[in-house]
Amino acid sequence: MSKIAQYHLHKLQPEKLQFEVYDLRSYRKKSGNHAAVPHSHSYYQIIWFFSEGGTHTVDFKTYSVNTNTILFISKNQIHAFDKNLDIEGWLIHFNESFFMHTDVDIFLKYNIFKTQTNPCYAVQVDAISTAKTYMSLILDELKQRNRFGFEENIRFLLKSLLITLERAHQEYSTKALEFNSQHELIFFQFKELIEQHYKENITVKEYAAKLHISSKTLTTISKEIIGKSPSQLIQERIILETKRLLKFTPLQVGEIAFKIGFEDPSYFIKFFKRHESQSPKSYRENIQDEN
Description:
It contains 12 helices and 10 strands. β5 and β6 form a beta hairpin. α3 packs across α6, α4 runs antiparallel to α5 and α10 packs across α11. It has a 5-stranded antiparallel beta sheet with strand order 2-9-4-7-10. It has a 3-stranded antiparallel beta sheet with strand order 6-5-8, with no helix packed on it. The protein is globular, with a radius of gyration of 20 Å. The protein is of the alpha+beta class.
């Protein structure tokens, strides 16, 4: 395949609820081998495995599934199930339009759906009961979709579920989530813009203008929050997408360069080598040898 399969949730039916919950075993048996092939989604996905066994691959890392393992799959992230169809759990799908309505949602999105750092962890016993209560309430709402305010209720319950899971996760984290930090909010808005424009060769100054701040302020905020400059974050996103295309597609290096937004393939190769200390071709060969 020259293209990574991408799946959508109600793309042609915008009037439908942009949120769904599936029984994991039924879903896997229905999807068959398709879900075991690396693919992506244009929506967010939460996979809750009830019991231990098997693995799940997200981008370049394979995770062991333990009891009450939860995976947070961000939109456009590449992942794959293993071949096991007999698994119990929940599968939660929702589009960004359903979830993103307030500044708090931006914080939740970028802390919970950690694209590379830690999209997977096992929920401890004390948080399971609360999380399952929210899931039970969500499933009850979905049974009667004509009730007053059911969509808003599901949205609030989803947010409560995510906050519960993040609280449980932060017990083992050194950094707390700060909903009131204006700098963190601007930083996450910048990350959002990178997702939208990283293939367009937009400068740091242009990103700053979209945020209605100076490039100097953006640099200060970025270094304060993550210890990296804005240009580093933009370049890292380009490199991530390049690695995905090198690993999961047979596209030629020149085709990848064009897809990522480079007009000159030779400059693209130099750019990649500067960041990875190897050529795109070598990276592809090495990662294939690891599989």
